[in-house]
Design goal:
13 helices, TIM Barrel, 9-stranded mixed sheet, 36% helix, alpha/beta, single chain, 9 strands, globular
Length: 377
Amino acid sequence: MRVLESNSLTVLTTNTCTAKCAHCCMNSTPTRPGKLTAAEINDYLEQAAKTPGIRTIIFAGGEPLLLGEDLYASLRKARSLKLATRVVTNAYWANSDKRALEIVRKLRDAGLDEINISIDDYHLDYVDAMNVRRAFYASLQVDFATVVIVHCTAVNTKFNAKELDELIGMKLDRVYDENGRRLPFSRPEKGPYVAVSNTMLQFVGRGTVELRPEDVRYSDGWEKTSRELGGCPWAVRAPAISPSGHLLSCCGFEVAENEILDLGDLHEASMETLLDKADNDLVLNIIATDGPFAIMDLLKEIDPTLPFRPMYGSYCELCQHIVTNPTIRQSLYDNMNRRAAAIVDKREKALLKLKEDEEFETLYHASDQVPEALQPC
């Protein structure tokens, strides 16, 4: 029985994308190689289906529809294993009404439950806005459970909320308020849950090279919200698989090859083995239990000279800085035992609760306030 029990799995199908967005958290490009085969994905799906708690598979990338028939085969496999599925796409394929409807019907016929369509200033450098409109309206014609437009905004956003509403021709419900808190929602009795995931630009991935921290729109309430939520609700509980077949602790940015967040090679160890190892890893438990902001506070108290930035726009921004900056990362290693006793105590209480209540899935109240259908990917 794991305390850090996973509830979803993101399959990063490919490093290749039709776009090269300046803010891409996965550093995807039209020429970047690396992808999973249908056989590999099927193996990982079978392992996921045997993992307690995993209910949803998210196919992302890169651009997952570049896999062609392999994607449809993987969706059929997931359906046979009774796993819910989601695809995150930029709608490059929706270059006509006929083509858009053809693709979404194929996706639904293969078993897809949820579709997320991305649009923002950076995607629009590569994908026509009308593709998103066509993909959206085509998706409403099939019986998806969820149709979400993922709209990222920043300080100087040109394609803003007003322009999105004008493009779609209606004002859709938003997923988050201005402080990044999940707004109340209920599924309609008929038809899909339709909304805009109004995310904020993050200084992660390629963004750390092509953007500036001041481009990020920092909400006055975000840091307060983050501290209230506490531990990261995605660490280990929302793992991902890289295009090279590594199991990753999350998909908030490109964590493959990171010495903390890359859990290991699935060609060499099973998903169960790697998740067991992650569940007992002290640093990962600190990230999941205390959270990046509490880690920063602890380390700054010990050494005020550590090179933290004045502001961070998300859990992922701060976590990326902690695990990739050599000085900060070493400080975490040097001081992680200060939190060991408290972590052990919290784990023991969580395990006791798990044994008392089979419905109890996580120690961290943060996960209850994060939409199940929306992960950082």
